[in-house]
Inverse folding.
């Protein structure tokens, strides 16, 4: 093999190496020193403005985490802990009482796929709205209540016949509708959902963590009971 053939082979290998970890979910479970779920901890890799937050079960999800990355756990304003990924795709993390942190690979968590990627926040393109604020609009359905509350979100029509757009018209032939998730489960619409059952709604313009399904953005709904429901 001559030098040009070798270079070509390296380029091909490099081309395949780049996306190996792109759009791949990294699932985690955070527990305290009594092995109870740790809620509300922000976790990020490189950019503190791109983070996941642990839910009531201590679960969190990230994407595009490389084997040699290090997770940063923001326990409080003054306390941050770091733990190397070391090639794990799913990790059970335990906080010790002395401020130490222990992480171990967990294949069961890893195999959950996108189940733990409840939300990955991006500054400037993500809007969280409480159910209380939605109900204060006087509307009786989720999409109707969202009208005018989120910059860049366009909702036209009426219940049962809404047209929703987050990222503008990208295609004249294909659907521009966003992905809808209710308590982590994909649904075709939000018409069935009672506004009084909603805890909060997250509108995400950049939803690449959900792969091609999130190409048009995503609307994530958490219900009052959804936080305690096993997905």
């Amino acid at each position: 093999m001559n030098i040009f053939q070798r270079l070509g082979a390296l380029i091909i290998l490099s081309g395949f190496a780049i996306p190996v970890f792109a759009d791949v979910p990294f699932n985690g479970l955070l527990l305290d020193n009594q092995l109870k779920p740790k809620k509300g901890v922000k976790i990020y890799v490189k950019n503190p403005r791109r983070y996941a937050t642990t839910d009531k079960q201590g679960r969190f999800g990230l994407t595009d985490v490389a084997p040699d990355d290090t997770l940063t756990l923001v326990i409080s304003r003054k306390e941050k802990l770091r733990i190397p990924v070391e090639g794990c795709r799913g990790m059970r993390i335990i906080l010790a009482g002395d401020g130490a942190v222990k992480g171990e690979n967990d294949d069961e968590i890893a195999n959950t796929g996108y189940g733990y990627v409840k939300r990955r926040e991006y500054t400037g393109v993500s809007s969280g709205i409480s159910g209380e604020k939605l109900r204060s609009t006087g509307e009786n359905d989720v999409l109707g209540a969202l009208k005018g509350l989120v910059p860049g979100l366009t909702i036209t029509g009426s219940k049962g016949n809404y047209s929703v757009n987050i990222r503008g018209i990208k295609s004249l032939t294909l659907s521009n509708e966003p992905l809808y998730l209710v308590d982590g489960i994909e649904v075709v619409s939000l018409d069935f959902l009672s506004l009084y059952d909603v805890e909060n709604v997250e509108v995400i313009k950049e939803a690449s963590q959900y792969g091609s399904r999130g190409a048009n953005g995503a609307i994530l709904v958490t219900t009052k009971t959804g936080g305690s429901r096993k997905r």
